[in-house]
Amino acid sequence: MEDLAKFSEDYGIGFTLLSDEGSRVIQTLGILNTLIAEDDERFYGIPFPGTYIVDGDGVVTEKFFNRHYATRTSAGTLLDKAVGRVLIHDGAFVARRADSAVRITSFLADEDLKLEVRSTLYTRIEVPDGFHIYGAPLPEGFFATTVHVQEVKGLRVGEAQYPPTVPLRFEELDVTLSIYEGVVEIAVPVTATADVLNWGAERETMMLEVPVIVRYQICSEEVCYLPRTVELSMELDLAELQLPNR
Amino acid sequence: MRDGTPRVPACLWLAGVVLLALSAAAAQPSRVTAALPDPDDERIDEYGISVPISANHPGRRFPAEENFPSGPAIGERLPDFRLANQYGELVEFHASRKGRKAAIIFYRSAVW
């Protein structure tokens, strides 16, 4: 309790910290770290680290458990999942590009990248009324929208998560195409690795320059523009490592 | 938490559960296997993380595979529980949410 009070005070924590003495809740949920021997008095009882998000009824709507002890899901990613909306948080790096047809915004879910904390790099494409862009699957000759976050040293890039498409029927062509209209948000998990941030080592760099390549083809029911490729340059700050409270 | 508390929208209530005191409890069958450290430098684990203690140290062990126990599934109601907060007050999890959403984070300790 005193440790929690001190931690809470030192870090200005505004949320509730709870102490699970005897690991009763951890065991009830079944998340006890079974890699630690029962007779290991110092370490036995810790959980596999993870997060649940529950809705108003207390039902789990999202959960994030990572096998590595230092891997976490970032605060910005958790908040967006909990709120159910992608927000541009204060302090987040934002890159914008616009052409005659669409507006593209790429932004990180957090202020910075921390070692092994999985953040999200969102790309938001705003398609004007009366137009659409495509998503997979598509017949040959059509170009699905893609977002590619280039891997650079010190950045692990996960698989892009595309929202569901809607079908649009073109009677004259006798095809049904998968399309997006309005605001399209594509999420790519990104994590800073030990290649640039490590315990006992100076930060090699303060920031990662990360190219984001967006490909799309915008069409209306009457006209189609040529497929386009747009590159946005993200500057993602790396957070200094912080020693635990002692 | 380098930057302190994230700004929390009113619809969300964040709870952190931090394990403090440990005591022996009922035995659990152990089917989880641990990832092995770099044989050339036992301080470096599979993720390249280097801490001046062995990667075999119990506090640094982690599952070799993704299918380790992670508790209630999406769609299940989280079991209720009552635990003391940092001010020494007992908190009943579901009642304290007052019908709001919550994020609950399990972490090993506020000390190490």
Description:
The complex is a heterodimer of chains A (246) and B (112). In chain A, strands 4, 5, 6, 7, 10 and 13 form a six-stranded mixed sheet that branches. Chain A is built from three helices and 15 strands. Chain A is elongated, with a radius of gyration of 22 Å. Chain A is mainly beta and 246 residues long. Chain B is mostly beta strands. Helix content of chain B is 4%, strand content 19%. Chain B has one helix and four strands; from the N terminus they run βββαβ. Chain B has one helix at 93-97; strands spanning 12-18, 82-85, 90-92, 101-107. In chain B, a hairpin with a 4-residue loop joins β2 and β3. Chain B is elongated. Residues 1-30 of chain B have low confidence and may be disordered. The interface between A and B is large, with 93 and 89 residues.
Please outline the helices and strands.
The complex is a heterodimer of chains A (246) and B (112).
Chain A: H1 2-10, E1 16-19, H2 24-29, E2 50-54, E3 60-65, E4 72-73, H3 75-83, E5 94-98, E6 103-108, E7 117-126, E8 133-134, E9 146-149, E10 155-157, E11 166-170, E12 175-180, E13 183-192, E14 207-216, E15 228-237
Parallel strand pairs in A: 4-7
Antiparallel strand pairs in A: 2-3, 5-6, 6-7, 7-13, 8-12, 9-14, 10-13, 11-12, 14-15
Chain B: E1 12-18, E2 82-85, E3 90-92, H1 93-97, E4 101-107
